[in-house]
Amino acid sequence: MTEVLRYAAFTIDPTAGNPAGVVLDAGGLTDSQMQAIAADVGYSETAFLAATGPGEYDVRYFSPQAEVPFCGHATIASAVAVAERGDTGELVFRTRAGVVPVATGRAAGGQPTATLTSVAPSDSPVTPDDLAEALAALGWATDDLDPAMPPRVAYAGAHHLVIGAATRERLAALDYDFDRLRDLMLRRDWTTVALVWRASGTEFHVRNPFPVGGVVEDPATGAAAAALGGYLRTHDLVEPPTTLHLHQGADLGRPGLLVVDVPAGTGGIRVTGNAVVMG
Question: Which domains are delineated in the chain?
């Protein structure tokens, strides 16, 4: 019988952060078996690892409804699970999106941490029609948007529509048309919509609707955090090198913290977080 580990990522509280399933011995599983396990687990993603050498793993990620090319919070959870079983230090995860190096360690309080380095980020324009449809599905007006953050489709392993919110109140009042937004996202191959409110120069509050995965909202989204870091660097909205703090999940009662290091240049974005076993 396949053992599924359950971790909460981007937190040290098992009742907070983003739950992820982790299967460490997935080498013999078929696609349909992995999809069935992910659906049964019911978290936004479950990661399936197959060891290919010392510290090296092939990794696939499944939501309850579909495979996704890359998932940040399940990567953090998987790396912590691997490190807790003795494979510490530098790891290599080979994902559908590319090679993702992951470094494991311990925070000052002794809690295990992991830092992933994303594939090279990029972004592209969103058409006026697609933006209008996304806003209609969200129930947002144009004056709900932050004019300093141009809507774009950002990528760092998966595609995310980035929309800046003008106020924290607008971000908190999330109540969207699930089917309408899902259908648009499926047509455009968007994994989540990253809704972002900037609290200060390096501090952000974020939310990620995830209807394409069968989940209303992802509580802490590492892939979107990496994509956001690349987006902010590309559009000169931060001055790299810099460290960002992303707060996510509080509106769901599962607060988490994502630490995002944005280096100068064009290389991958680093995302750091804790993970803890869930009861």
Answer: 5-117 (3.10.310.10), 122-273 (3.10.310.10)
